[in-house]
Design a protein that fits this description.
248 residues; alpha+beta; 2 domains; two-stranded antiparallel ribbon; 27% helix
Length: 248
């Protein structure tokens, strides 16, 4: 045992430990490169026109999720729905049990869903303002932990996670893909019974898909670290075995 703690051997121990830690770190780095990077939407970002992000008949691109957009139109109060708040994977977009979703009908006749805020009771959702409004906020295709009621002839209604398809079933409009989480509106709403949504809860992905080559590199580095540690521990055990005197 004394042989293993000699100054020269200690240096070797430290070098091997440093090599193993470095390989583990390289594996973690490669894994971070491999996985999609997610961040939170910036409510203070300069908005881009909705037409540059979401067009009728096309799906919202992954790179456009979380982009702050601006759109001008009129709310259709007759189509307004109240979604129940479930369990979200991240921060909740509203701090209340229900969220208010209203279609904004655009000049070309298409519409986009706007999450206007949250309410404590399903029946307390205020009507949207009349006339033309300009809305600004990040757009997303995520359910945000919300569920909307869908009319059904079989059982009188059912709930589905929030999505463009779910709203399309409820609204029967020429609906564009995505939901705009309202951060500001002109003219501003005068209603005090609705809690503004937390737009920073909208996450976007800055890289699309898993980079499998980098994922394999991370596994490779961890295998190297494990193999190096195994060989060195085996070497130390063999060294100790040779130093133990054999009994006659």
């Amino acid at each position: 045992m004394r042989e293993l703690v000699r100054p020269g051997r200690l240096v070797v121990h430290l070098l091997v430990a440093l090599a193993v830690v470095t390989m583990i770190g390289l594996g973690v780095w490669q894994l971070r490169v491999a996985l999609p990077v997610r961040a939170l939407a910036n409510p203070n970002a300069v908005p881009v026109p909705l037409n540059e992000v979401s067009t009728f008949g096309d799906f919202l691109k992954l790179a456009d999720v979380g982009v702050v957009v601006a759109a001008t139109g009129q709310y259709d109060a007759s189509k307004q729905v109240v979604a129940s708040v479930g369990t979200a994977s991240g921060p909740s977009v509203v701090s209340t049990p229900f969220a208010v979703l209203t279609p904004l009908v655009l000049p070309d006749g298409t519409a986009v869903a706007v999450l206007r805020g949250g309410v404590e009771a399903a029946g307390s959702a205020p009507a949207p303002p009349d006339g033309q409004v300009r809305v600004v906020g990040p757009i997303t295709d995520a359910s945000l932990g919300l569920r909307v009621s869908i009319p059904s002839a079989g059982d009188g209604g059912l709930t589905r996670p929030l999505s463009t398809n779910a709203l399309l079933s409820a609204w029967k409009l020429n609906l564009r893909d995505g939901v705009v989480v309202l951060s500001s509106q002109q003219p501003a709403s005068t209603s005090t019974s609705m809690t503004p949504p937390d737009v920073s809860a909208v996450a976007y992905t800055t890289e699309s898909g898993v980079q499998w080559r980098n994922a394999l590199y991370s596994v490779q580095w961890w295998v190297f670290a494990l193999f190096t540690a195994y060989l060195y521990i085996r070497y130390l055990l063999d060294t100790l075995r040779m130093k133990v005197p054999q009994s006659a």
